[in-house]
Amino acid sequence: MRKGILTIAAVGLLTTGGLTACGDDSGDKAASAKTPKIGVILPDSKSSARWETADRRFLEEAFKAAGVKYDIQNAQNDKTAFQTIADQMITGGVTALMIVNLDSGTGKAVLDKAKSQGVATIDYDRLTLGGSAQYYVSFDNETVGKLQGEGLSKCLTEKGAKNPVVSYLNGSPTDNNATLFKAGYDSVLKPKFDANEYVKGPEDAVPAWDNAQAATIFEQQLTKANGKIDGVLAANDGLGNAAISILKKNKLNGKVPVTGQDASTEGLQNILAGDQCMTVYKAVREEAKAASDLAIALAKGEKKDTGQTVKDGDRDVPSVLLTPKAIYKDNVKDVIADGYVTKEEVCTGAYAKLCADVGIS
Ligand code: BGC
Question: Which one of 83, 203, 233, 351 is most buried, by most CB atoms within 10 A?
Fold first, then answer.
């Protein structure tokens, strides 16, 4: 069943890849003559392990397989650096620029500049609101949030929690994905708050998804709630781990379910230890491949029909949205089987036995 979900995602992607190019109807003959060179700007390396451990790796894999030139850089959460890198890439002759914006304002400035210089643009993972990217490649992010809400609810039920107090650690207020994740988990949890089945506890957005700040914020939430928080909707594994560190300090870890996202090594280990309820696995290899295919097509002056659009104000942005998958203790092995993380990374030291217990051999 769970395998089935992955298969659907892969098929969806194959379909995208197999779609016909609409041809060079832009009249831009120069574009069709360009040899692809793709620039990628990653956002940081601290808000999630994924950017350096998964995205960089899978983007490189896709570019190498396609035999195209590329330049992948990381802005390290610095908006000025982000713009400088973009300028250097444009001057350096990239044919396509893929960005994971730090906020929509600077993202838009970079996209507009690239466009004015005839460089193709792709919003990778995060949509730039009011932007001008030719494509948006991501996951169905509202579904990511829905899986988190359902996961928390499942774990609270398993703990036999009665009228649990649920706190929120939302993602960065400047990340459109954080808004979508929240819409997803609210769609599951708000009806429960409204029905007085659950009690809404403290809610905070974590600036720039800063994991260290998240720990401070969660500690304040716990104090504010007089120590009574029964479940934590944390928007990714880094924020989840921050909450778990404070729960540990208060000897509450394992008692209070915490959610996550990204299927990071740390997140998976927290799940095996029983400190984290679930995570959401996003097959970044598929995301990187889809974005790479589109960037190469654009460099050749082709336009691909992705068969899907996302609304950004009045604009319909052609999009590829992949399917996320919920991970609990019993299917941690699927993430390893998919080659996203290795058994050696996850099953170290004390985790070796926990891995064996859930059939990771
Ligand atoms: C991504 C998440 C990531 C978060 C923090 C979001 O835009 O979709 O996968 O955990 O940013 O980097």
Answer: 233
